Amino acid sequence: MEQAQTLIxxxxxxxxxxxxxxxxxxxxxxxxxxxxxxxxxxxRADIDVYAVxxxxxxxxxxxxxxxxxxxxxxxxLETIYNPASAPKDSEPDSSSAELGPFAKVNTVAxxxxxxxxxxxxDDLIVKFGPLNCRTCSSSLQPLTEVVSANENKHxxxxxxxxxxxxxxxxxxxxxxxxxxxLGCHIIPYSSAQ
Length: 193
Known about the structure:
By secondary structure, the protein is an alpha+beta fold. Helices cover 38% and strands 16% of the residues. It has four helices and five strands. A five-stranded antiparallel sheet has the order 4-3-2-1-5. A hairpin with a 2-residue loop joins strand 3 and strand 4 (164-170). Helix 1 (2-27) runs antiparallel to helix 2. It is rod-shaped, with a radius of gyration of 28 Å. The two termini are 33 Å apart.
């Protein structure tokens, strides 16, 4: 959130700079397209050609900078409001074996997407798509958001089942004949349990 606010302030600053450069153009009765030479090809005497050219060049640069900042703001807001789009950990998958489970499968409904994927009661979830114990330490709300954002799309899960690591491909979907998109009840898990 802090990064997004910093980028928004930067955007506002760039917009102010663009307005300053546009005021230079207005002071010279000029725009971005106004010719700087007269009909004979000589520089116009009624405007400051150097100031207008400098302002135009600066406006072009600032507009490019503004577009880049707007794209960065969009990415920052997307990661805030859609955890599934957050950058993936650059760690190799083997290091995630050191991460502990953060959720436990409490029940699985028969013929549900969870049952079809092979999820079983008492499976301990180590990784749920991009989520792990670091990203879901306080609540399972991010898990709900990942499920909602991935309806009819595959989510890769890494679970511990009887001490063995199992990889499962789960496809959340509505209309399977029961409640929710998974058909299982997942509860928070801590190693103290």
